[in-house]
TrEMBL record:
This is Flavodoxin domain-containing protein. Pfam families: Flavodoxin_5. InterPro entries: Flavodoxin/NO_synth, Flavodoxin_CS, Flavodoxin_dom, Flavoprotein-like_sf, Protoporphyrinogen_IX_DH. It comes from the Archaea. Residues 4-168 form the Flavodoxin-like domain. The lineage of its organism: Archaea, Methanobacteriati, Methanobacteriota, Stenosarchaea group, Halobacteria.
Amino acid sequence: MSSFLILYGTGEGQTAKIAERIATTVSERGHEVSAIDVHDRPDPFTLEEYDAVVVGASIHVGKHQDEVRDFVTENRGALSGMPTAFFQVSLSSANEEKREEAAGYVESFVTETGWHPDRIGQFGGALRFSEYGFLKRLMMKQIAKDLLAEERKSTGDIEFTDWDAVDAFAADVAAFVEGRLGVVTDTTEDPAA
């Protein structure tokens, strides 16, 4: 069993929801998992108690959360000495024509922080129209017009996350960590029990 930290930054909650799903998948493989919002880190906080780290961030106006970028930059040395993964949440990842743009955000993050995670995942985000004020709702409708099908009610919340892709990413990260650390897990029940 290994201990995983899933540290994330979230704007409207979708990255937190994805982090929790990753935590559940990794936990089901027998690992200990802590999912923590970058704003809620205990003080003092150290990476030394974890065997592996997954960092998640969302894109807003073309940028990741400053706090996530700062955390990675400040902890780059520790992160480079352990198995790591990064996941990004953006509307661009949900749009076939904009996936290259989403990949560019990841490249920028890697360049800015100098961190090279072992695994990278990109997932579509969500539109939380019920939480937006009038101006933000108009702006988000314009930004996401390619994603909003006419039959969808554009005033309701819409989720673009591919949950099967999230589960596959989490399983891949867990398997990678298990292989790198030589950890054997048994995800099947013992028939003799």
